[in-house]
Sequence to fold (348 residues):
Amino acid sequence: MNRLILKKITAFVLIWGMMVSLAGCGSRKHKSYTTLRVGVITYTQNDAFINALTDCLKTELKSMETAHMKIIVSIRSADDDQEDQDEVAAEMIDAGCDILCVNLVDRTAPSKIIRNARDNDIPVIFFNREPVMDDLMQWDKLYYVGCDAKQSGEMQGEIAADYINEHPEVDRNRDGKIQYILLEGEAGHQDAISRTDSSVKTLISKDITLEKLSYQFADWNRGQAENRMTQLISQYGNSIEMVISNNDEMALGAVEAYKKAGYPEEEWPVIFGIDGLKDALEAVEAGTMQGTVYNDKEDQAREMAKLAVDIFKETDIESHDLSLGRYYVSPYQKVDESSVEKFLKPRQ
Ligand code: GAL
Ligand code: CA
Fold:
């Protein structure tokens, strides 16, 4: 073989090698770019706290995108129907989602979602509506992010007791008892049951003598609570001295009912909620509500987002310090007139 031909062959082999390695780089680059698809399903689209929480979750997940990982978040609701939710979960799994975040309609009926997720190896983070432990323990890729409802009831009871001790005029008819109404969230919901129970027990343990006028379910909803309260106001007149509500939306329904009934503010009862949503914080600042308990949606959303990413990458789950390897419990905080300012500032 003469020299010239040898040179040409060498050049060809070199160029071809470069082309192959360039193509190789290209395909490696393609492979290093992953997409995490998170499917979020809420129990309804009409719950103010849940909507605020899922807004935070979306923002958190988006902020965790990197040059190597795109995150696509899809949020749907189940219109208060567990079968609808099972179907939406199935559709999301079929569409290729990698992780599901589920706010159950019926916290005692997660079985279909769990079975489907398990068959397709899709981890599930349940949030806000807590499945019973037996269900959560069915598979090791099931998690729960939420709060300890009892703690919120205790805090609400403490804020109310402190307020009454400092303002004896709450007992308007001076009979030594506080005539009260309790607005309850939803029959069977872990937060409703525990908040009612622990709030009342805490008040009693702090030597407040209570007289129950009525307990009413209003499904966490402002409009329903307003209707119930309007009826109770016409029944009890100005003898209601305190309204304890399982959440802020219903407490704000009570505020609305008093505004519309035309009572002067001195004749309103004291009103306490839970959640710390913006409208309620403003009501505490304005003095139409006397206190609430902050349900830390930012913290819950941050934990859900981090957990979703770490589960997806199969790293760092231990650093989450989950109890029983499954549960993240976000702490509540008390909000009253003296502390409301700090909660009204935009939070991180
Ligand atoms: C509670 C919250 C309520 C309501 C409910 C829905 O934690 O305080 O406002 O959102 O969850 O499950
Ligand atoms: Ca009284």
Q: What stands out?
A: Residues 33 and 66 are 9 Å apart (CA to CA).
